[in-house]
Hints:
Elements: H1 2-7, H2 11-23, H3 29-38, H4 42-49, H5 63-72, H6 76-85, H7 93-106, H8 110-122
Helix pairs in contact: 3-4, 3-5, 5-6, 5-7, 6-7, 7-8
Amino acid sequence: MLAILAKHRRFHAARALLDEMRRSSLASPAVVLLLTRHYCTARAVAVFRALPSLGFRPSITEFPGLLNALCRYKNVQDAEHLLLSSEEFPFETKSFNIVLNGGCNTVCSVQEAKMFWSAMEIKDI
């Protein structure tokens, strides 16, 4: 149901349903990420940061899901900025690979890929 509401951009109704699910202990971070994938614009980062207000503490396992959602919907620059500016989550190979792959698939710029790869090397990833 959440996926249908999100697909049709009925985010207020999806949020209300999510609140009901949370009260019934049916919600999980995976459910929130489902909404995030459909709501993947600059607001997706705000949704991710709102996880604590929904009763969830975002962890390193959900962070790559956000990066993947951003890249899938061609928000690679947002994903890169979030990855490089995040102080909450440590740098790890998986996160960098998601952004690198997203950049290669959407931007198709070898020069940008090399610059990002250099950033990975500088950070010892």
